[in-house]
């Protein structure tokens, strides 16, 4: 006689699964709420405490941790010594274990009560899953209700098919318990730990969906959901089209920039991870028009973020060119109908509450590189130190802020020029800062933009006065940068010579 042990927190489909197992000749072992659900459906089951001849103790903390349970799962059916011991101890064969775990993650999101959270740390469940997984050659281990029908179907097939499924279920179960343990350890690390960079890096993510392709068409790609509030994958809703790896990266970059200006109407255009158009205006239509002027050539086929409802008028303006991806707070029905005619366009909604990670993690070939995540703080601009004789009116500090944040979120070396709350020139990813300054000016001129009177930002200190001299030749009114060069005095003197307001923030924002 074979037994199936069913003990689940999520009871979705469990009664139909149990009926199917009974029809296949299994006897059901069960506990607590699962057994109550089976009884309600008139499915006969054996209480685990009756099976083990041992009562549940400590309010149910100990119920399945027993040799009759562990032995019934773990003994090797093809090992003579194991079979002998099982007969001597009257250990019965448990051929299937169906367990899903106490809702630890959900509990941490619902309450801050530590006692309640600790009571939702499952002990017996992971032990059962690991035991069944270890003995997968002989035992089915089921932790996902989506696999119930697969198990019932395969029980009528040959041993090869059954063995293949048991192996797949084993992989899923070990991943499930690993994710569960990671969630517990991560929570405890945050609650009791005091290290910015912990001794052990814990990372667990679940595939949200497969992407069109990776960075290139020959590469596979997928988006994974992390266990944080408002996680990116769950909050991003696809209305039209399946994104690629590059699309997702650019969407994330556009949202990261936009969330710095939650209380403003902003349009952000991203291409290959870098901004090529940003504007803050009274309407999203005006913001988009201004953002597009910064670099309409690079913007073609780019990603556009609008932190509001995208209406028909704006949709018509966007349709005059080509944006591959648009992400907005929402779309009007008329706008969606207009975009539906564009085959290649991809549309998404997002609530623009991008979660702020504590760590920046990069996978290397043979290692993992980790640092504290970098953010541009409002105080850096508000408290920036004026080091020049000339100053900028407070009314223009929005330009200064926009330029500095854009520079800080752009690949180093970067220089950004902003005028009237719109990006008018940007140089990025250059190996020298003066090249970034020169390229920003050249791009503005190529686009026919007048940068006279704009402000300039650099994400790192200006090592020489050459970038200031370029700024002076183009009528730049103010520069914001971290400062800290051994030639700061020369840079300040050059700014004073050309009547440019110069501000030091004291914080560098390299981005590689």
**Helical segment count:** 21
The main pleated sheet reads as:
6 strands, mixed
CATH architecture field of the largest domain? 3-Layer(aba) Sandwich
- What's the count of strands? 21
Coarse structural class:
alpha/beta
> Any low-confidence stretches, pLDDT <50, length ≥5?
none
Could you give the distance between the termini? 62 Å
Number of domains: 3
Q: Rounded to an integer, what's the Rg over CA atoms?
A: 30 Å
- Beta-strand residue fraction: 15-25%
CATH fold topology of the largest domain: Rossmann fold
| Spatial strand sequence of the major β-sheet | 8-13-12-11-9-10
> For the record, what is the CATH homologous superfamily label of the largest domain?
Methylglyoxal synthase-like domain
What is the CATH domain class of the largest domain? Alpha Beta
Short description:
By secondary structure, the protein is an alpha/beta fold.
Structure commentary:
- By secondary structure, this protein is α/β, with parallel strands linked by helices.
- Helix 4 runs parallel beside helix 8 (124-134), helix 8 packs antiparallel against helix 10 and helix 15 runs parallel beside helix 16 (333-339).
- The longest helix has 34 residues, at 159-192.
- 39% of the residues lie in helices and 22% in strands.
- The chain has 3 domains: 3-192, Methylglyoxal synthase-like domain (Rossmann fold, 3-Layer(aba) Sandwich); 231-349, AICAR transformylase, duplication domain (Cytidine Deaminase, domain 2), CATH 3.40.140; 375-504, AICAR transformylase, duplication domain (Cytidine Deaminase, domain 2, 3-Layer(aba) Sandwich), CATH 3.40.140.
- The N and C termini lie far apart (62 Å).
């Amino acid at each position: 006689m074979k037994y199936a042990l069913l003990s689940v927190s999520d009871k979705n489909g469990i009664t139909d699964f149990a009926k199917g197992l009974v029809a296949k000749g299994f006897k059901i072992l069960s506990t607590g709420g699962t057994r109550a659900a089976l009884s309600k459906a008139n499915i006969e089951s054996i209480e685990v405490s009756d099976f083990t001849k041992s009562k549940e103790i400590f309010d149910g903390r100990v119920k399945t941790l027993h040799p009759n349970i562990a032995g019934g799962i773990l003994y090797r059916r093809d090992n003579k010594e194991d079979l002998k011991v099982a007969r001597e101890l009257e250990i019965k064969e448990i051929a299937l274990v169906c367990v899903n775990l106490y809702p630890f993650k959900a509990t941490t999101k619902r309450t801050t009560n530590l006692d309640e959270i600790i009571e939702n740390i499952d002990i017996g469940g992971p032990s059962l899953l690991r035991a069944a997984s270890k003995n997968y050659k002989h035992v089915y281990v089921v932790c996902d209700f989506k696999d119930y029908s697969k198990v019932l179907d395969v029980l009528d097939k040959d041993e090869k098919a059954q063995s293949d499924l048991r192996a797949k279920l084993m992989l899923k179960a070990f991943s499930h318990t690993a994710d569960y343990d990671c969630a517990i350890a991560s929570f405890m690390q945050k609650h009791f730990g005091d290290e910015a960079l912990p001794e052990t890096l814990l990372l667990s993510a679940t595939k949200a969906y497969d992407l069109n392709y990776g960075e290139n068409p020959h590469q596979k790609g997928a988006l994974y959901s992390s266990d944080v509030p408002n996680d990116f994958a769950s909050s991003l809703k696809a209305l039209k089209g399946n994104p690629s790896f590059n699309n997702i990266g650019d969407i994330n970059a556009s949202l990261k920039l936009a969330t710095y200006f939650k209380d403003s109407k902003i349009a952000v255009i991203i291409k290959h991870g870098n901004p090529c158009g940003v504007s803050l205006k009274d309407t999203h239509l005006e913001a988009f028009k201004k953002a597009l002027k910064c670099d309409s050539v690079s913007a073609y086929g780019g990603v556009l973020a609008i932190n509001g409802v995208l209406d028909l008028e704006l949709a018509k303006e966007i349709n005059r060119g080509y944006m591959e991806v648009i992400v907005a707070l929402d779309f009007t029905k008329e706008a969606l109908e207009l975009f539906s005619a564009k085959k290649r366009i991809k549309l998404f909604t997002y609530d623009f509450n991008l979660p702020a990670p504590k760590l920046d993690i990069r996978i290397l070939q043979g290692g993992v590189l980790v640092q504290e995540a970098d953010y541009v703080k409002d105080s850096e601009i508000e408290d920036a130190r004026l080091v020049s004789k000339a100053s900028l009116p407070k009314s223009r500090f929005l330009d200064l802020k926009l330029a500095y944040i854009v520079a800080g979120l752009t690949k180093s070396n970067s220089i950004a020029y902003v005028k009237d709350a719109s990006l008018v020139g940007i140089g990025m990813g250059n190996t020298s800062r003066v090249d970034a300054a020169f390229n920003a000016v050249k791009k503005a001129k190529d686009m026919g933009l007048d940068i006279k009177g704009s402000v300039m930002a650099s994400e790192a200190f200006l090592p020489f006065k050459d970038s200031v001299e370029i700024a002076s030749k183009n009528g730049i009114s103010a520069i914001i940068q971290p400062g800290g060069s051994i030639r700061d005095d020369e840079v300040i003197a050059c700014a004073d010579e050309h009547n440019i307001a110069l501000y030091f923030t004291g914080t560098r924002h390299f981005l590689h």
